[in-house]
Amino acid sequence: MGIFTKYFLPNEYVQSIYTIKPEHLKEKNIKAIITDLDNTLVGWDVKDPTDEVRKWFEEMKENGITVTIVSNNNEDRVQTFSSTLNIDYIFKAKKPRGSAFRKATSLMQVNKSEVVVIGDQMLTDVFGGNRNGLYTIMVVPVKKTDGFITKFNRLIERRFLNYFKRKGYINWEE
Ligand SMILES: [Mg+2]
């Protein structure tokens, strides 16, 4: 596996967060989740968590898995969303840079090996997680539309995804 694969290939690629079950994470000895917000938990234009999202957070909590939302979006967006879930969050995280990942890991008082990074973007979430030695799960974006910068990132991401599919590293169609 080349350096390119090392940094951009997620450990798992799934349809949505609902595919990710506490039992599966526990098998991997994962105790903490760093999750992206926009287009990972809800569409980028949805202000509050849906009932389904709430249930997913509840399930994780019941299984002793701590969750922190780490988002590149602004304080208002991230705080409003996170407050009703009653969990920690980091806004303007500057992913793929490492500082927010390290901060979240230390806040949750776990080792790097016990953390999973979940997100819908290869260039911020997966790259950031991989580069910092964390387990990564990529999800298909909740919504197909994006802001301007993300749109550009998606063009690159699409090429990477096609490459990984050709190589057989990712073997299902969205
Ligand atoms: Mg996102």
UniProtKB/TrEMBL annotation:
Enumerate the InterPro entries for this protein: HAD-like_hydrolase (IPR051400), HAD-like_sf (IPR036412), HAD-SF_hydro_IIIA (IPR006549), HAD_sf (IPR023214), PGPP1/Gep4 (IPR010021)
| Pfam families the record matches | Hydrolase
MF terms from GO for this chain are:
metal ion binding; phosphatidylglycerophosphatase activity
Q: Which UniProt keywords apply?
A: Hydrolase, Magnesium, Metal-binding
Q: Which domain of life is it from?
A: Bacteria
Q: Which Gene3D superfamilies match?
A: HAD superfamily/HAD-like
Please identify the protein, giving its name as recorded. Answer: HAD family hydrolase
Q: Which organism is it from?
A: Mammaliicoccus stepanovicii
